[in-house]
Amino acid sequence: MDKKLLQSQLEELQTQLAFQDDTVQALQQALASQQQELMLLQRQLELLKQRQDEQASALEELPGSGDSEQPPHY
């Protein structure tokens, strides 16, 4: 192989490697961003579940909310 062909192939490989490095870096940034968003969504879900549990407990404590009570017509 002549020197020009080898040089051309080397330059092509270097270009591809640089592109792959940029792609990997972009994917890492996207993954980190998605991980942060996932953590935020998980925290929001926990807070909503806690709020729902608190509201369910509050409803159970209301007068006349017991399931064991018979309706007045019995």
TrEMBL record:
Record region (Disordered): 52-74
Family matches, as InterPro entries: SlyX (IPR007236)
Any Pfam family: SlyX
Matching PANTHER family: PROTEIN SLYX (PTHR36508)
Protein name as annotated: SlyX family protein
